[in-house]
């Protein structure tokens, strides 16, 4: 049923959010357009005075809290939530199921100041997701107080991860990663965490059919300062979703569809109770995340008299206005990279490289196929080939 719903995704995709760089003003405008079945409540202000809004929908007994963009440059979950808002206004039979069984409490943008600058941290340069214990930031206090007021049974913690995470055994990008965060150093499993694991197993069952070999299980090392770990400890079955990479999808417009599908699959599993039929073994069978991919991989080059492959990655930094990023490419590995893959692979015969290749330095070279220029960098900047 989730796959069928995604076939009609364009009907409820929020088209006003077409890249990752939307701002608080865009979110506020869209929230104001929601019909009356969505209850809006301002639950606080960011450091710079931007509103943080809670949206409540549904009248069921199971309380589910969803929050996104704790990190201002992690916007995929927010896009998926606005797609969800549109879906919840449709006549799909799943909408009635969710409304009767769940109360959804949603915070679409926890860190509006970070979103404004398109940076991970808030205006005080603090990582909100490492501020559960100290509560130094206004945003951490807001999120913590919201959970305390709602006392949700389930929580969806929505993030983006680096695009360089891959899925063990597939050499594919980890387009989505799931995790039921640990609540202690020993990684124990109580009923709360078990329920999160079972919901994830059900989510994976659906999504692996839609985007096979692109879903990984994130590392479950305990982080005592993080919200997911602590919400789990407090009795909210917490489900982490991370959006990674997908080929030729820099603005994550295809990934948001899969992300929405994951959220919907989880909510339906909760509303129906399907997760209770799942097995813990199915959670632990989800392939682990690893790092066996590059952004660019070039095979079959002669360098210093030997044949090697070169792995190249980019780092992103926001422009001054937070409406775009600058990509800086650097050489990250040289040698036998036959066990790796990349978003873009050059493996043609007759490749020639002109320029200097230095490990961990910015890429500055030209790549030719026969006499045709196919790739070029100047001090880390990709040039038009």
UniProtKB/TrEMBL annotation:
- Which key words are in the record? Carboxypeptidase, Hydrolase, Protease
SUPFAM superfamilies recorded: Zn-dependent exopeptidases
Family annotation (Pfam families): Peptidase_M14
Which positions fall inside the Peptidase M14 domain?
13-385
InterPro entries from the entry?
A: Peptidase_M14
Keyword Hydrolase among UniProt keywords: yes
In alphabetical order, the GO MF annotations are: carboxypeptidase activity
The protein's superkingdom reads Bacteria
Please tell me whether the keyword Glycoprotein is annotated for this protein. Answer: no
The entry's family comment says: Belongs to the peptidase M14 family.
Q: What is the protein named?
A: M14 family zinc carboxypeptidase
Q: Which organism is it from?
A: Pedobacter albus
